[in-house]
Amino acid sequence: VPPGKHGGPPVKRFLKKRKRPISSTSGWHHFDVSDIAHRWASNPSSNLGLVVEAFDAENENLIVMPPTSGIDEGYEPNLDLRTTTTATHSRRKRSTGLTCDEQNQFEACCRYPLTVSFLEFGWDFVIAPKWYDAYYCAGECRNEGMSNHGHSSVVQQVPESRMIGNNPGPCCSPVRMSNLRMLYFDHTSRLQLTTLPRMKVVRCGCS
């Protein structure tokens, strides 16, 4: 928070504080700071920074900052800050595909939940995320379905006698996908951040 009337450095105020026994300090530690982030978004001038500290029982700072070497190498902290934004709705109503789950299933083309765990694949080099929501498309596509592709609609009107192969009709498949940011160790054990294209299904349709 800002300093007092007499100036000086900003004053630290605890947002989240957590104590862990030494035996369970490895791995990721999650701190939800969404409340303060909302306040920062509405009043950006109040954002004077975010400080992450870790102290042991003797009040020694456990965070090792780069550059590191020797016994400290590989213990650099990684701060994984995840944010979400709320999409603004335009006046024009947009068509969206169906979203289903175990309780709500439809015969029509629909997007279903699917959680992919990199640990199950044996991808231990992935630092974050350890898992993500990939989703998948399933369901029937009839001629009067949700196809947004004129080509598919036209092909359905062509007699099968003119088709060389089988014409199974439109199929339920992803029509919009999003990327996935991944933090991982490469073959030289260096930390890398990359963007994998088309890893998450956003919308399903018939094409």
Description:
By secondary structure, the protein is mainly beta. It has 2 domains: 1-82, no CATH class; 96-207, Cystine Knot Cytokines, subunit B, CATH 2.10.90.10. Helix content is 7%, strand content 23%. It has 2 helices and 8 strands. It has helices spanning 34-42, 150-155; strands at residues 98-99, 110-112, 115-117, 126-128, 131-133, 136-138, 172-185, 191-206. The strands form 3 sheets. A 3-stranded mixed beta sheet has the order 1-2-6, with no helix packed on it. The protein has a 3-stranded antiparallel beta sheet with strand order 4-7-8, with no helix packed on it. Strand 7 (172-185) and strand 8 (191-206) form a beta hairpin. The longest helix is centred in the N-terminal third of the chain and has 9 residues, at 34-42. It is elongated and about 85 Å long. It starts with 33 loop residues before the first helix and ends with a strand. Mean pLDDT is 76; it is low at 88-96.
